[in-house]
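Researcher: Last one for today. Full complex below.
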Amino acid sequence: MTADPKGVLTGVHFLDGDHAACEGALAAGCRFVAGYPITPSTEVVERFAQRIPMVGGLFIQMEDELAASIAIQGAAWGGRKVMTVTSGPGLSLMMEHLGLAAITETPCVFIDVQRGGPSTGLPTLPAQADMMQVKWGSHGDYEIIALCPDSPQECFDLTIRAFNLAEQWRVPVFLMMDEVVGHMTERVVIPAAEDIEITDRRWTDKAPGTYRPFDVGPDGIPDMVKAGQGHRIHVTGLTHDERGWPAMNPRQQDKLVRRLTGKIRDNADVLTDIREENCEDADVIVVSYGITSRVATAAIQQARDQGLKVGHARLVVTWPFPATRIAQLASRCKAMVVPELNLGQMVHEVSRAVAGRVPVRLVDHAGGTVHDPQVILDRILEAAR
Amino acid sequence: MSGTTNDDLDLSHLPPMDNPVMPYLRKERIPHIWCPGCGIGTTVNCFTRALDEAAQDLDRLAIVSGIGCTGRVAGYLNLDSFHTTHGRAIPFATGLKLANPDLNVVVYSGDGDLFAIGGNHFLHAARRNMDLMVVCVNNFTYGMTGGQVAPTTPLGASQTTMPYGNFENPASLPFLADAAGATYVARWTVFHVRQLTRCFKDALGRKGFRFIEILAPCPTLFLRRNRLGDGVDMVRQYKERSVVRNGADTKEVGLGLAGEIVVGTFVERERPTWLDAMNDHLGKVLGDRYQRYGG
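Model: Here's the assembly. Have a good evening.
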């Protein structure tokens, strides 16, 4: 189906990434946002609070991020497309409800506008240091999907995709922004509503009495209902059976957790989105994501100007990690360089996929600003030797 | 018929009768997890009788629980039911209610869940006058985890994490609810099954943030440790110590290990709900541009 025109601000705009992400959510059909103010993400919900009364929906500022991250789940079971928005300290508070969304298979979108940490860290300055937290920060085994925009345009585009993926796979989906991409203002083109593809919720066609909330078909993903339709569903954070009833034993735990993780892990290749440039004959491939891709592009250009064969693999989807494709790329280059605004997070995933085929060099940064392209260039030159 | 017992009656010609509350329960999930003498089941019995008497449309009723012994209530009721995380039933219920305002949403949880880990959510939902009915079964302890001190544990009572007796001042739940702006505040005990059933029925038919505290015995982890007898002994205490005082000043209804237990309907007030306030306000400010929210 296509977007509801009510939420789509068709036209060419000059927007920052936070505002563009908000427009993406409205275009995707999000009509319920719960949030809590936190720099540098607040502009997303400020714009939503301003826009939503004219679109039909609501925003509620909750008392903390724990509340925001579970209010959206109540709203999802009430039938809405939902989102919450935060940054580091708020993300830490949301970890318990990330797990709840994973085990109850509640479609929801989290936007994390990353800032320097740990703790209060650098509230107004960028980092990419939450990459592992979203994947591993909630207890237990679970899977998510994470998308990394490198421009306000992508903040718009990928927010729509985040909603579509959340509905399709019934997992929490993260838009991993950072302070720079959130506050950078650029041209954003918002298409006509009929040109925006929207994935609707997987509503069941079963009648009350025959529907079981966690019964799955061959794709391992259950169809959904909303409260108030007579199905009398039970939804619990406990390990549950197909009826949704608690079933706390090793056999059901194994069955449920393997299905919850398998529906993403087994489809990592389907979900892969890598933008590759000049990788075919590259000696060195720079693997980057988010804002760091923009900086890496400058360094790669300088290296190519010096006659080096340098390619660029930009990860749009970081979770599930595109291990298959990274391994393929590693089999045809001599080295990989991974710049990121942290002291080494996604580089470990790259190394795991590369499995010793070629050296993998991290260009780390503790955050607070973006890399100096020269530092990335130096590492490319070292790698090319 | 004096001297005749049920054993003497031949009832075989009568059709078998189900307990009238069975249609409201998920029969296949019985037996429940609660201990003999626990008061939670009694509250559920009253709740289901109230549903029966109120002729509530069950498809339009949802129940949300947190974590703990009372947190298991949602799973036994044959309604749309949600067993959420510890302390967060109220914000989940807030999202559910706002997403689908046609639902009557009931939060049913324990004192530790709603007032320790979830205390902040309680205060803000009451302040906003979120249209929720919140039922707190107060057994003065953390039952599920083995009898630790709760924000309601009376001074002097022994708990596993207050092994020399509790020296923390307990919260008076009706006082908190009143101060935070709840539109309906009542307290009963599991002795008061008729009053409680009426109270549930009354509250189900109202709007706004409604709060019902129910005192209930936890024989396994509170009574035994404090040598207070069994569940029946406690219900006898409820009978003897309770004083019905409707409209009582909530400042005056605090609880101790001994002394008066003030019960009744303490607060009934009218305030616009969060959703009505939003619709009225935005309608006034934005005029025709506002897309009125509902359903």
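The first helix of chain A runs from residue 17 to 28. Chain A is about 40% helix and 20% strand.
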